[in-house]
Amino acid sequence: MEIEKLREEIFEEFSLIKNLSELEAFRVKYLGKKGLLTSYLKELKNLPLEERKSLGRELNELKEKLEELLKQKEREILFQEEDRELEIDLTLTGKKRDLGNLHPLTQVIEELSQIFIRLGFEVVTGPEIESDYYNFTALNIPEWHPARDMQATFYLKNGALLRTHTSPMQIRAMLERTPPLRIIAPGKVYRCDADIRHSPMFHQIEGLMVDEEVSFSDLKGILTYFAQETFGEKTKVRFRPSYFPFTEPSLEMDIGCVICETKGCRVCGGSGWLEILGAGMVHPEVFKAVNYDISKWQGFAFGLGIERVAMIKYEIEDIRLFFENHFLFLNSFK
Ligand code: PHE
Ligand 1: residues within 6 Å at CB? Predict the structure, then answer.
């Protein structure tokens, strides 16, 4: 037997191995129990001593070498397979994941809150299910008062109600804190009313400032600042006398129409002005309800509709769009 030739043949065959099953077949063929090398080694005993010695050494060396190479090869193949699994094709188009965005009303609430935070106001929140007392009575709206009819109220069976405005937060804040205080209270309110300008659920921000010297001109200054921060520096404002049971004197603020700049157009109904909020100096009866000393404390309060601000800001005509959650509508506020 020519050991050289055998070795060459074996290595040649070894070099062609491509995968684990070929590797296994090779091992069986040469090193298995009935494998070629194994049987040669068994047959050595039939040879004369000299030959047996030298051939035996060579065959054993070959066997050991092969075992080592097989181990190496096996590792290589395993690594290659792993690599193939991890392979990334950089030429493939990726999957684009859309980021969501905050609801336009949430965005407006945050933007308006920031304006008042800059002025030293703190944000507080409270319950949407209210008692008659906080929503009306403590705000100087007794049971017989016609102002109760101005706000078509949803009553619950247990006598509680869905708050018709955020003004009960004035009472809650004053009871929880000691003056001086400056708070704003954003949140949902409910009135039995529905058309393209009214939704039975909508949002308000209440504002309240109480201190030893707070004047009507402080109120006007802060509201003007708010309007110009929200709708632009050049925004005109107009104050009209008004009536709320919980403020005296009371006012309503209009801003110059953002579309026609007070010339009069379809959006402002030809008047040139858009109504934006109600406000006034805190009524002494309200201070009495929370046991604040009316000879010491003064304050103002205001309440504005978020949807109204958002509709003017983004020129939206139908309030219902905010609550239908149509994909295209929401996506346009990114
Ligand atoms: N609560 C009033 C409303 O909803 C607005 C308001 C708040 C007016 C605070 C004056 C002071 O119409």
Answer: 165, 167, 244, 247, 278-280, 301-303
